[in-house]
């Protein structure tokens, strides 16, 4: 965990081919699926980078150093309804959104306290959002990898499950190793391995079924977490953990890790996997190539954000929820009774997750609280960020200016791992200088790396390249048709 409650270790999503990726015959996404990049592309590709996100676009436009393109043309020309898809092109807007989430993660781990004053308002806006944004983008990328709004028919390529298992195993091992550094960060990579594994079968659902699962999971996940808590000893406290190497050194450590990953961890499957499913459904419902996609994302995002925070405020205020919580705190959380904010004091002890002492806990919407209202609000914030990125990246000049930021987004896995190591070894003081240094070094280092290795497989980023190299090639009847000259 970070010094802040459940500080968002949102992490990861890595990348694909750096310069010239638009010509690459293979591409991958952050959910770790085999895929090609357009709806019309053959159903074969190499299963590449584990946490990578290659996004289909199908529109001409400015490309960044990672081969990204977002149809940076006027809306009436770029990505029109009759525009043919262009295989292998990244969506720079998604890379930009991910990079912003990376910097929000830095803010949670080494930035100043999130206070509503001055520049601190920006930190408040992103407080608790980074894990949600990363996780939602992972689900979105999984859908994009399989055709997006026009999914490719037929079964997945042979070896898809094997690739997913390898990817998840590598991510889990890396997550456990980073946890052992004792950096104070709740490393999310091991949790992501479980998300990706669970996402694989859902990728085969139809659009309506996937959307229904997404809607149900947003409520069912937190409710199940609340109901199951007492049965596993978490009625009052004990949540917010994350697994280390003991998960693979003993049977008791393994079973404890399963408990942590599914129910009691900092980013448990029950309450964070809904973001993946929502992202997957979003990729089916919105074609990011089309004019109007940004307006839809911004509209949906505003509605979800207002609904999440607004309904929570009504339930806790006029609805009497806060009084119910204060009574539950007096009965079960005596240590918090005389604190300035008893509700937040309890959540801080839980690393953000709610205890199972009153149903009214499901009404809160605070950062990392893992309730239905917080989940809806975080989904809204993620959509707002994506919508803004899509809108900005359709303007050629702005897309060009955002290329360095997008490169950071394409190397998310490497940047995340390095920042955990840096925090463990350098012990930086929390504040604006440390935050600025981490962000500035990331921008420069990623740009230099992408330039130096632009014509080699290493352009993906060091960890992204290594993960890509471990992936088996897809096999099957379609394999021969997938390779472009």
Write the H/E string, N to C: EEHHHHHHHHHHHHHHHHHH
How far from one another are the termini?
48 Å
**Stretches where pLDDT falls below 50 for ≥5 residues?**
1-68, 72-88, 476-485
Biggest sheet: strands, sense, closure?
A: 2 strands, antiparallel
* Global morphology: globular
Helix content: 40-55%
Radius of gyration: 21 Å
Q: Total number of helical segments?
A: 18
Order of strands side by side in the largest beta sheet? Answer: 1-2
Structural class: mainly alpha
Report the portion of residues in β strands. under 5%
How many β strands by DSSP?
2
The residue-averaged pLDDT reads: 80
Write a brief caption for the model:
This protein has 485 residues and is mainly α.
SSE inventory with pairings:
Elements: E1 27-28, E2 34-35, H1 92-110, H2 120-126, H3 130-144, H4 160-179, H5 189-202, H6 207-228, H7 251-264, H8 269-285, H9 293-316, H10 321-332, H11 342-349, H12 372-393, H13 396-401, H14 403-410, H15 412-426, H16 432-452, H17 462-470, H18 479-482
Helix pairs in contact: 1-3, 1-12, 1-14, 1-15, 1-16, 3-8, 3-12, 4-5, 5-8, 6-8, 9-12, 14-16
Structure description:
The chain has 485 residues and is mainly α. The protein has helices at 92-110, 120-126, 130-144, 160-179, 189-202, 207-228, 251-264, 269-285, 293-316, 321-332, 342-349, 372-393, 396-401, 403-410, 412-426, 432-452, 462-470, 479-482, and strands spanning 27-28, 34-35. The chain has a two-stranded antiparallel ribbon. A hairpin with a 5-residue loop joins strand 1 (27-28) and strand 2. Helix 3 (130-144) packs across helix 8, helix 9 runs antiparallel to helix 12 and helix 14 (403-410) packs across helix 16 (432-452). The longest helix is centred in the middle third of the chain and has 24 residues, at 293-316. It is globular and about 65 Å long. The chain starts with 26 loop residues before the first strand and ends with a helix. Residues 1-68, 72-88 and 476-485 have low confidence and may be disordered.
